[in-house]
Amino acid sequence: MTDTQDTPLLLHREGAIATLTFHRPAALNAIDVPMALALRDAVRTLAQDRALRCVVLEGAGRAFMAGGDLDTLAADPVRGAAELLAPLNEAVALLGQLDAPVIAKVHGAAAGAGLSLMLQADFVYAAEGTRFNLAYINLGASCDVGASWALPRIVGLRNALEIAMLGETLDCAQAQRLSLINRVLPPAELDAAVQQLAQRLAAGPTVALGHMRRLMRAGLDRSLRDQLAAEACAFDACARTADLPRGIAAFHAKQAPQFEGR
Which protein family is named in the record (predicted)? Predict the structure, then answer.
């Protein structure tokens, strides 16, 4: 996508790493229908990209994302919600099925739908001073974009209910204590830290990483017997890749593995 002021979402590709930038900085990247559609279309493209090995989500300007665009909802809440959620839900579902790990690079604020999208990432690195608020309850709404699925899995049911039902703002220390985020960094160090993580993940065994992230996400919904069967299927799929023999050979040679991602 072309980097212009009118583009609500930017897709930048550097090698095997794709960066999706929410690009409504004047509105703190509040997600409107054009941005939701652009996100869906971008993730559809990434889902078909066999060379993809890592995805980074970020926000332009002063915030990661301040939530849903309230102007979209104000005139006709029912229609506005439907138009926003259909593409957003498809994007989230597709992100969850990728082999490529997803990193959220967060700064300023992650609120409402912004926090919901952040929760879908496998790793979250945040700049010092970032604030987090699920926010929906403060508007008289329940949550969306997968927050009710992801939040209890990450922080536990009691903490999830407190975050969702009280609508209070959390700082980085609180967010890290609750495992909402992995690391807190000085703003000047955030880009480099995320780039280093993205490069490390992009050099990994992408098929195995994909199975790992899907197994972890599905485990709470399966019995032990069903999860054991799913693990066996996933391991069988990994055994059919070029990367497992490479990893074994590197282990025996006491060398760093050079994975192909397939």
Answer: Belongs to the enoyl-CoA hydratase/isomerase family.
Query: pLDDT tens, 70-121?
Result: 998 888 999 999 999 999 999 999 999 999 999 999 999 999 999 999 999 9
CB atoms within 10 A of CB 135: 24
CATH numbers and ranges of domains, the chain: 9-202 (3.90.226.10), 206-253 (1.10.12)
Cα 15 from Cα 200, distance rounded (Å):
13
* Pairing of β 9-14 and β 17-22: antiparallel
Taking the C-alpha atoms of residue 44 and residue 88, their distance in angstroms, rounded to an integer, is 12
Distance CA 216, CA 231 (A): 10
C-alpha distances out from residue 61 to 65, 106, 194, 229, 230, Å: 10, 11, 17, 45, 42
Please tell me the distance from the alpha carbon of residue 163 to that of residue 134, in angstroms, as a whole number: 7
Which residues partner with 103 through β-bridges? 56, 123
- Residue 151 · residue 160 · CB < 8 Å: yes
**What are the residues whose beta carbons fall under 8 Å from the beta carbon of 211, sequence distance 6 or more?**
99, 234, 235, 237, 238
70's tokens:
């309230």
Which residue pairs, CB below 8 angstroms and at least 24 apart, start in 185-188?
A: 185/125, 185/126, 185/127, 185/128, 186/127, 186/128, 187/107, 187/127, 187/128, 187/129
d(CA 87, CA 35) in angstroms, rounded, equals 9
